[in-house]
Design goal:
The chain is of the alpha/beta class and about 325 residues long. It has 3 domains: about 100 residues, Rossmann fold (3-Layer(aba) Sandwich); about 100 residues; about 70 residues, Orthogonal Bundle (Arc Repressor Mutant, subunit A), CATH 1.10.10. It is about 60% helix and about 10% strand. It contains 13 helices and 5 strands. A 5-stranded parallel beta sheet has the order 2-1-3-4-5, sandwiched between helices. Helix 1 links the parallel strand 1 and strand 2. Helix 2 runs parallel beside helix 3, helix 6 runs antiparallel to helix 7 and helix 6 packs antiparallel against helix 8. The longest helix is centred in the middle third of the chain and has 45 residues. The termini are far apart. The relative contact order is 0.07.
């Protein structure tokens, strides 16, 4: 990261003018504010790369400015350097505990100020590289998992390219343990994609991302949540379950013809005794919604509260 714009919040006119002139000469874009209240307003408006702020200011002191700006996503991670008099060490200590990055004692030279700015620039560059590396790793993980899913979808016999016949009694399928292994692999891929979706969403909500990083995260979200991926996950799961238990869907639909494909999908996950998170990954819903889905399914099956839905479903195997 290259620091280009610096904000200086300083009430002493001569010092403010001098520092702005010197740093402008060094190639930085400068924004000046004469008090804490103005500094907060301008920092939110222009979002500088670094903020240099005197501790003793009218209206709002430097510590109050830091605390206020740390609450806003657009300025929460902005590097913050205090300017302080030698007698204000206690205030400096408070400021550092509030999240300030550095402090400079008056009187100071332009060299001392530049050293502090360059140190912040180096640290910001390291953090940016770390984020970029994590982002690249996340991209690769997403691509690998989606590729793994597609491999599972398109390389497992010609059944995978034809619509699923849920009433099929075809017995030409692999041994049960192999089918179960395929199902567990599919669940693992699906859950990993779900976890990736959660991670990316969390990082987006946290903010503190550059526009390029945010754009990449949004593309990742769209890729993970691509409708075809979700649809194919469900279809592939039903296909593999039907090959493992070819009589189940036919028997169940004979008695409950009102069941939708989503209902059948939920029934199959319950037969396999999957966890709530595993079920949510297959169905493409939030984990909290699984209980509601089970409740509605129970009503559709005509069961009452005391009935055990799992025991009931096993009767159709």
């Amino acid at each position: 990261m290259s620091i280009k714009t610096i904000m200086l919040i300083e009430d002493e006119v001569d010092l403010r003018v001098e520092v702005i002139e010197m740093l402008t000469f060094e190639g930085y874009n400068m924004i000046g504010a004469k008090n804490g209240r103005e500094g907060i307003k301008l920092a939110r408006k222009y979002m500088p790369d670094i903020i240099i702020c005197d501790i003793m200011l009218p209206e709002k002191n430097g510590i109050a400015v830091l605390k206020k700006l740390s609450k806003y996503p657009e300025t929460a991670s902005t590097p913050f350097i205090f300017i302080t008099a030698l007698s204000e060490r206690e205030n400096v200590r408070k400021g550092m505990t509030q999240g300030a990055d550095d402090y400079i004692i008056k009187p100071f030279t332009i060299g001392e100020l530049l050293d502090s700015i360059k140190a912040r620039e180096k640290k910001a560059f390291q953090v940016e590289n770390k984020i970029a590396s994590a982002l690249k790793s996340l991209e690769n993980e997403t691509e690998n998992r989606i590729r793994e899913f597609k491999d599972a979808l398109y390389t497992k016999s010609k059944d995978s390219v034809f619509p699923i016949d849920i009433n099929s009694k075809n017995t030409n399928y692999s041994p049960k343990h192999e089918i179960n292994s395929e199902i567990l692999r599919l669940i693992d891929v699906s859950n990993t994609l779900e976890n990736l979706h959660h991670t990316v969403s969390k990082m987006l909500k946290a903010g503190n991302l550059s526009s390029k990083e945010e754009e990449t995260f949004i593309k990742l979200l769209n890729k993970i949540r691509e409708p075809k991926i979700i649809s194919d996950t469900k279809s592939l799961f039903l296909m593999k379950f039907n090959r493992s238990k070819p009589e189940f869907f036919g028997r169940l639909l004979k008695k409950h013809s009102n069941l939708s494909q989503q209902d059948l999908l939920l029934c199959s996950t319950m037969i396999l005794n999957l966890s709530g998170r595993q079920i949510s990954g297959i169905l493409g819903i939030e984990p909290e919604s699984v209980y509601k889905k089970k409740y509605r399914l129970k009503k559709k099956l005509g069961l009452v509260q005391k009935d055990n839905i799992l025991i009931y479903l096993h009767e159709f195997e």
